[in-house]
Hints:
The complex is a heterodimer. By secondary structure, chain A is mainly α.
Amino acid sequence: MNIKDEIHSVLQAIQVKIDNNTQLTRDELEMLLLSSLIEEAAE
Amino acid sequence: VNIQARKILIIQLEKDVEILQTYIACSQFKLEHPEHDLHVVTRKEIKENFSFLLKSTFSKLHIINVKDYFTNSELKSARQNLNSNLTSLNQENYDLIINFSKNKSSTFLLSLIQAKAKMGFARNEYAQLAIQDKWSQYIYANIINGKLNSFNLVDVYKQMLGSKHNYQIDCHHLKNKTIAINPFCSSDKQQWNITKWNEVIYKLLRDDDQLKIIILGEKEDYQQSLEIINSPIFSVVRNRITNLTGQTNREQVYSLLMNVEMLLGHNTYIAHLAAIFGLPSVIIAQGSSTYSHSAPYNVSSYTLTPKNSCFPCFETTKCDLKPCQTGINHQLVTAIAKTILNNHEVTWPSLSKYITAFHVENASIHQSNFDNFGLQHSDILNSDLTASDYFKLLYRIIWSYYLGHIELKTKLPNCSNFTIKTLNQHIEGCNYLFELYGHAFNFSNQILIETEKENPNIENIHALVNKISEIDKLCDITSKTFSFLQPLINFFYTNHLNAAGNNIVEVSGNNMISYHEAINIVTVMADLLEQTIKPRMGKLNNQFSL
């Protein structure tokens, strides 16, 4: 799996938790920070 | 800030203009409270570009740089690198962290660093946006999602820091017959037509054979700068134009600005750098440029805006015809520049030596000055205020008192009969809101009464919560009918949506306070509207009866 697909699949799993109103772990919040930094760097 | 803060971290992950606004607010706070230790976390390129300024106010400049995390092509190592960056921030043991940025990454960052107190946009454990302090709620409701803000962000940041004093920067007086011009900006809608800049440059150089002009801009503006410099109208005066577009870093721009008499340009970082030492500036703000919150923090600046009803639009608003381009003409900009160069105050009598009333028909000239709250703008032509401008003024009085505990004493200016009619209509909207917030207050109270019972009825609580949701919908409808009440409705919606509490009792208690405050603010607004209208209504009625 390349890094893009890996990020995508991790984010998908987190999105499922967000949609189900499930509390996120610190690790998952860190992943969301990383993905938003990537998004902003691409802008 | 009601805490004994000693070590404060400021998060600023936005761009050049925002870091300069943050720097000005923090440097003024530091003058007032030198005992506090200020740190900042920012982007790598921002640190590199502005450390020459930042290091005087912040004892540590931390960076967040996503490229540094991807040392190889593994997600695992990127996550580890980010984690170690966060760990080092957490080891600082901050007393207070304030997030002054509005972007997504900063909200997660604030949530991931520990501190005794936090302010600004954050995320809760469900990744939802959480805004606890009222000034940040104001930014969300009225700066990001509204058009009737009249506070400069520097003043809002100062309020969040707890800074009370305004350190006014005196006008920079240097007479060396050199003007800096920054005719470019990143947004097409905001940029004034290059041919108009050519006219301004030509007329200024033609009328003063000692004058020199320096053109400043970014690397990506270089092609446009050639359009200026190669224009055939400059054949005789070209030797007095120096094109430095794309050839200077931020520190060099700052030094260059210190050696000129005036700046003409847009609301870019260059104008904000000039504001640091009070360089007289003429700023063209059009399209989505919102001078009210992002104007350079400079009492020596004049901001020109078009009078189009659609100004300011949002960055995302589609605009093919660009009506803003017809608002501000080159004669007006040249006239203001000449008036400043001749050391005269920019007033209509001084401008009328160069232009006629026709030239200011579609533009407003806003002069920066200070009131008790901070930087504000007054129209030097003293035109009748539009309904929008009038509401901005009323909101400035209300929010200053409610959020900043500052009483503003201001005369209620002239306004047209049409504006008076609009103000009058909005009293009805205030009455609706008064009733709606009153009901919401009662429903929140009933929830508290129900929860205090020995066996609370969950169905009753659900029914009351649903009624409060219906009131939110009715408030939304009211904001569409009475559009100038939108700032108030948006703010209190954001406020009660973010009501603090770990259970329904705490949340309902805080909601009650929020609705109670909303009732008070609506009452004050209705009162201010009535006070404005009363003395003028008699005249208006007479005119209609005639």
